[in-house]
Structure formats: C-alpha cells, structure tokens
Amino acid sequence: MRGNPPSVGYGFWKVEKDRAANLTVQAIEMGYRHLDCASDYGNEAEVGQGIERALSSRLCSREELWVTSKLWNTNHRAEHVLPALKRSLADLRLDYLDLYLIHFPIALKHVPESVRYPAGWFYDPGSVPPRMEYDPVPIRETWQAMEELMDLGLVKRIGVSNFNVALIRDLLVESHPYLVQSKLLRYCQQESIAMTAFSPLGAPSYIPLGMATTQDSVLENPVVIAIAQSHRKSPAQVVLKWGVQRGTSVIPKSSNPDRLRENLDLGGFLLTDEEMARMESLDRGQRFNDPGVFCEQAFNTFFPIYE
C-alpha cells in the first residue's frame, strides 16, 4: 500500500457536472492516478461514472488509483460520519477510499440528505439573511469516528484539510508561491506527514468567484515567467514543478484537455536551487481559501479558523 499519493493529481473542485465523467476518463487515459474529490464539489456521482468507465475499459486497475474524498462540515457528529462516507463511496462507485479528509475544521448543524445534498454552507438558504449554523462538535469526536472507518476497511487513510498543524498522517493545505508555508512543510517532513498542496497555481480558481484578481496570479509574476522561459516550459508547469520538488503533492484543476496534459508533463527538467529560492521569495502570505474572509462575505457569518 502506497504511503503517499502520486505527486500530481487532478482536483475536481469547480469541474462542471456535465463534463466530470468524460474528464475523469480523459485524465486517467493521460496518466493521472490521483483523483481529488469531495462531496461538497457536487460532482462525485459523475466522477464515479468516469472511474467505472475507465476501470471497465482497463485503462488502469483500482489499485493503481489514489482516490481522495472529504467529509463535509455538516457531518462532523459521530453518527453522521459513516453515512456520509457511504454516500461518497456509492457516488464514486468504489468499495473503499485511499484517503478521507475532514474538509474544514468547521462543524455546522447537520442537514439531512433528504433536505439537500450537497448541504452547502447555509443551514437554511431560504432564511433572511441565510447564515451558517455552528454546531459545537469537538474535532476529537469526528476523528474517532473517522478512525472507525479504517477499522471497517472502507478507507485506507484518514487526514485533515485546511488545518494549520495537525498530528495526523495526511495533511491537505493551501500552498503556492504566494503562500509558501515553509515552516509547516518542514514540520510535516520532520514528522513524516504527507502534505498535499491544493490551489497550487494560486489565484486562477478564485478569480471567477471574486476572491482574487488577475493581479494576484502567480502565473503572471515576472520571476515565474522568466524561469519558465529559461526552461521552455509554461508558468503553470514551473509552479507545479516547484511544488513537487519541495516535496508536496499538487492537485491542479482544469477542464481543458491540453492543460490537463501540460500539468502532468513535469518531467525532463529540474529547477535549480537558485530558482527554487527565487520562487520561495515570492511568498506574501496570501491565502485565498480563508473562511475568516469568505464566510462573512458569502455566507453572512464571521468564522475565522487560522487566527
């Protein structure tokens, strides 16, 4: 059993439902073996169709795939953890997950599937104004229920997402050249914790949401462009290579087949120590995925988790 996920994965956040199945098959055909999913993305059923098609076509075996999913905020109470996993497994058409993460250290009031699925952030979207409804569930309760999933053989590994530091096996955190998190990475490596960097290209996924501007894009940074030109690679390939060379797994998202191929094509070149240092010097501590900001802007609820 592999201890760490493949270095480059495909992230399904914001992948359109009507394209998710075909993109899953295309990604696996191209060589992707790390699929990063979540119930909150609203497309796990379609991804599952794609996985089933790929496996039935013998593009790869189930054992060659690393499939991650995430427990949503409304399912933190112990009695809701197993049903949430079973829904993801049914949608993904799998018997087990390679990794199951607590999506956020945010426990919200439970919303039954019969009311709404995915539950989203609002407890009652029809209320005026709609708000998040906090549920004081200790992380320990959720974690113990996650451990039971391993005992049942339904998940191979468990971990956390969007945490600062956690003494757990797998850790998924935002990381890109504008949010280097070098101390966190060093700590993870010291403690043999696998670190997966989501949003490895920084701003692009957040610009359409109004959470970033084109000026925030690391792909437009002169340092990144110069390094890319020197290697005859794209800025995106350089940023992803930087993430892989520093020891993280990266899960970029794209619905464009050409970019899917480009994101996976990171062989044949290495960044020098000087180039790695120049990339790290771009750090400005800029976090795009911060509930302390976006929850108040989008969900009428102030909910800081990093302070």
Structural commentary:
An eight-stranded parallel β-sheet has the order 1-2-3-4-5-6-7-8, with helices on one face. The chain is α/β, with parallel strands linked by helices. It is globular and about 55 Å long. Helix content is 36%, strand content 10%. It has one domain: Alpha-Beta Barrel (TIM Barrel). The longest helix has 15 residues, at 78-92.
Q: TL;DR of this structure?
A:
It contains ten helices and eight strands. By secondary structure, it is an alpha/beta fold.
What is this structure's SSE topology?
Elements: E1 10-11, H1 17-30, E2 34-36, H2 44-56, E3 66-71, H3 78-92, E4 99-102, H4 139-151, E5 158-161, E6 170-174, H5 182-190, E7 194-198, H6 222-231, H7 235-245, E8 249-250, H8 257-264, H9 273-280, H10 291-299
Parallel strand pairs: 1-2, 2-3, 3-4, 4-5, 5-6, 6-7, 7-8
